[in-house]
Amino acid sequence: MSYQVQDVTAGKPIKLWTEGVPVEDDARKQLMNTAQMPFIFRHLAVMPDVHLGKGSTIGSVIPTQGAIIPAAVGVDIGCGMMAARTTLTAADLPDNLHGLRSAIETAVPHGRTPPRQSRRDKGAWENPPEAVDAMWASLLPGFARITEKYPRLKNTNNHKHLGTLGTGNHFIEVCLDEADHVWFMLHSGSRGVGNAIGNLFIELAQADMRQHIANLPDKDLAYFEEGSEHFADYVDAVGWAQDYARRNRDVMMVNVVAAARQVIAKPFTADVEAVNCHHNYVQRETHFGSEVLVTRKGAVSARKGELGIIPGSMGARSYIVRGLGNEEAFCSCSHGAGRSMSRNEARRRFTVDDQIKATAHVECRKDSEVIDEIPMAYKDIDAVMHAQRELVEVVHTLRQVVCVKG
DNA sequence: ATGTCC
Q: Is any atom of nucleic acid chain B found less than 7 Å from the CB of residue A55?
């Protein structure tokens, strides 16, 4: 067995797949808070990229019965990864990759695309292409159902954010696998509208519980009880936002491939071994013979044979993995390497020169605004992969050659 | 992460 069990007074046990990886005391304390919630099913499962989050810990799997915690999913509902293997190899790429990066940056609006009309439109389409209109039309019936009851959600970037990257940690990469096959990989979520849905229901949960909220270990553990009106509405809205996030990644991948075709002479296809997985979401699943709501906050589903994506930091390796269906981990794995220091600490400790050296082999931004993404601010990905060897096996090892940061 | 009556 490659996991440790920590017993919690007046709570469910915590099972940690963190062998050889440091777990901060603040993250441990937060896990113990969550483990005390009476509706946790069996135990919490902790992934090796665990670190402190808002309300509950990033890199954890929170199975519940009869209740749901909206702040555990958080505001970037449906955030996740998509990767597609192409029929290209490294030799088909141009010698200078700057043109490929520019083509991708033009094809996909991102955080640094200038605001269109107001700052609120940052990173949005000015005029969404037809494929985005068609995708939005397929999402609209669900959105109309939600906004009929929660009209304030209409006033969000929804249609104009579909197929756009966002900012911060969201990125698009061109990678090479162990056989020099070219892959496209991207990381994004449900953008403005998912954020608004997350925030709305986090507020509603706290308002619904205002009489008892002082009894919770943390106000961000406020929950909806199954059978209540807001529980049903949240399950509906969070599921819709997760669909939006998945389709957001689908649209971007199509546009990344189209951009690449503009600068790569050789014809190619890109749907070989496509993977599209959430790592910030909740859904109903069956575990140990019972129906359970499984919240994965910075964790990926890893049922037996299921493909997933574990990205390393900028300049480190990333992995396409196959689930081993480890039931004790509720069939899950980590969603990345995990930070080893805060963004602020990384900015204090490293310089632009350090970032240039650490990303010498990658065509990417190397300015002061991305120092917090420097590889040294992340845990050792080899240790993280070793700690979860009973959760997933590696199918492909990818190294980045181009990285577009939002 | 997003949006900006913080």
A: no
